[in-house]
Amino acid sequence: MSNTTPELVASNKCFGGWLKRYKHTSKATGTEMVFAIYLPPQAETQKVPVLYWLSGLTCTDENFMQKAGAQRVAAELGIALVAPDTSPRGTDLPGEHESYDFGSGAGFYVNATREPWSAHYNMYDYVTEELPALIEQHFPVTEKRAISGHSMGGHGALICALKNPGRYASVSAFAPITNPVNCPWGEKAFSGYLGDDRESWKAWDACELVATAKEKLPLLVDQGEADNFLEEQLKPEALKAACEAAGHPLELRLQPGYDHSYFFIASFIEDHLRHHGKALGAL
Ligand SMILES: N[C@@H](CCC(=O)N[C@@H](CS)C(=O)NCC(=O)O)C(=O)O
């Protein structure tokens, strides 16, 4: 299947710009994929840089656009926002729809190597290569990119940036799964998508990747201290230790009282947008 021209599914005017949903046929996943793009008002007359947002478990392209409240500041700064889905859809692989943390809604932004997942679960290629190429071909955007995300998507944002020096001007994350090779969500996903060889998992783990990162892109991470998943799944202290050992710049902000929800994201998204805006030269 080849990458097709995106087809408009929905359109809403928002803060002077446009929030649009498109579907297209993806080469990476071999399925139809839906993504959302917010084009700020500046995109009417000039090309704008893009912040990619990777969502967490159970999400589609819609959660971030509906709940984070990012459009007002994106419109002020002149940044486009792009939110892909979190997995291929429309397939029916064994067990694909049985749990919230594996299969549909839980692609983990890796390229699966284990069958039957390897035919479709190539979300890493999709979000780092295919989707940006499609966006840059069909929309009024520059090749300046930033990346952020939440939880599983925070892990995704960190690994996409760490594995691709020069591709992103900046990276940030909310409550990321920092060390998937050492937590139940990551162990389940990686054994399913990548198989039993735990060595091969390390190529998809932010704590492992900072040790060898060629570019020391500063990591901005917000983490709620009242997040139910903090100790078992997210482990910000593991990222802190890995960054300290590697001399990798990390701004880890522990936010008292905040949980794992989009109320937490909405509370700090402005700081992240301004952080990315500065790096993208959008201010
Ligand atoms: N459903 C799971 C948790 C799933 C979850 O918290 N998902 C986060 C990302 S990891 C999310 O963004 N959910 C969708 C939403 O809040 O809109 C549970 O109840 O334990």
UniProtKB/TrEMBL annotation:
Catalytic activity annotated for this protein?
A: S-formylglutathione + H2O = formate + glutathione + H(+)
Q: Which InterPro entries match?
A: AB_hydrolase_fold, Esterase-like, S-formylglutathione_hydrol
**Is Coiled coil there in the keyword field?**
no
A Gene Ontology cellular component where this protein is annotated is: cytosol
Recorded hits in NCBIfam families, A to Z, give:
fghA_ester_D
Q: Which family does it belong to?
A: Belongs to the esterase D family.
This one is known as: S-formylglutathione hydrolase
**What organism is the protein native to?**
Marinobacter persicus
